[in-house]
Amino acid sequence: MNETIKNYVNVCIKKGNQVLLLNRQHDDFKGWIQPGGKVEFPESFFEAAVREVKEETGLTVRHLQLKGISGFTNPTGKERYVYYDFLCEDFEGEILTTSPEGTPKWWAIGQLDQLDMQDDIRDRLLLYWRRGSFERIHYWDEENHCISHTEEILYD
Asked: Using alpha carbons only, what angle is made at residue 55 by residues 49 and 61, rounded to the nearest 5 degrees?
């Protein structure tokens, strides 16, 4: 069975009790999101994470931790969108004042519920700093054009 796989990275940059998010106001991912984007062949997933953070925030990240895998699976279309989810608590540099992907800003973790962001991103952010790793996959219902269900597995 041939399938199409598209690879992406998400990076949760955490500083104490704050996370760095981008105010994205274009395409289907409007609202506050963590830095990330498409993995450009043949770069590694770690290289993609470092590049995306630098492009979108101006920061240079170090000591990335692969915390989980998330994404979307379309069984009918034989498509898989895989997101490699990294946590970064070690970085250097100053954040950009503007970015094409959205203005970066530090937010207190306690404020996440008040931010305009997709529920999936809000729920997934909490998984980054928990002990262990995670897998969170949404299954697409091609016929009804919606997510049919989500499977989440926490590994401790």
From this structure: 45
